[in-house]
Amino acid sequence: MMLFAVEHLTYRYEGVTAVDGLSLAIPEGSRVALLGANGSGKSTLLRLLDGLIFGQSGTVLFRGDDVSEEHMLDDAFALPFRRTVGMVFQNPDVQLFNPTVFDEVAFGPLQLRWPKNDVRDRVGETLERLRIGHLKNRIPQRLSGGEKKRVALASVLVLDPAVLLLDEPTAALDPRSQSEVIDLMVEWGGGSKSVITATHDLGDLEEIADHCFVLDAGKLVAEGSPREILADTDLLRRTNLIHAHRHRHGGELHSHPHVHG
Q1: Domains of the chain
Q2: Global pTM?
Q3: Which residues of the chain have pLDDT under 70?
């Protein structure tokens, strides 16, 4: 059984087609990259997979069950789904709303009706794991961008989800923080869990993914291993994942591909 099966999925908003007749399948235990430039539909697809929005046509199946608006209103489906699938948004400010970091990380477990003692222990462990234990009494909105990103990650990882959806997880982070987040993605669940990452950054692709789907204008235009995708410079140029910079050498003009991000 597939983890996710997307079939002929279309999503439009304000007259714009963000996902256009998309079909793809993601097996259990996958580490998948959804690649695309801004506006390609990859962030919208993550939200569709997470049951935050719903397509006008087509289906999203999670382990064979329809991730529909009707099902997401039914606790018998929605609660196990939310325990299993966690999403971290590109902009942590979208995700953070509680008065303290501790409250932020505790919010999900409390909503899922965990015993309070278990919540306290798990929150403490998660904060220490992400090296933000010293921030537990701070107001999330007053933290630095990197600290906010860690709190947003902690608020999802505290639930120990089997499936992690990440939208541009290293965006706006300094190089050290980027490296630490990538290490976390690689090590998450000892490699046994599923991680689906939306990104336009090709630099760490071979570390974070075993398989890639390339999106352009809401359509699936290619898929393959990171090595296969990175080797196809025509594809990367067509989908605006790389661009050519022109340089003059010895009076002659030369073009060289440059990676975005």
Answers
A1: 2-259 (3.40.50.300)
A2: 0.87
A3: 189-191, 243-261
Q: Report the candidate in 12, 21, 40 with the shortest Cα–Cα distance to residue 212.
A: 40
**pLDDT in the model for residue 219:** 97
CA distance 90 to 149: 8
107 touches 155 (CB < 8 A): yes
The DSSP line for the chain is -EEEEEEEEEEEETTEEEEEEEEEEEETT-EEEEE--TTSSHHHHHHHHTTSS--SEEEEEETTEE--HHHHT-HHHHHHHHHHEEEE-SSGGGT--SSSHHHHHHHHHHHTT--HHHHHHHHHHHHHHTT-GGGTTS-GGGS-HHHHHHHHHHHHHTT--SEEEEESTTTT--HHHHHHHHHHHHHGGGGTSEEEEEE---TTHHHH-SEEEEEETTEEEEEE-HHHHHH-HHHHHHTTSEEEEEEEETTEEEEEEEE--
Among residues 146, 170, 179, 189, the alpha carbon closest in space to that of 31 is found at: 189
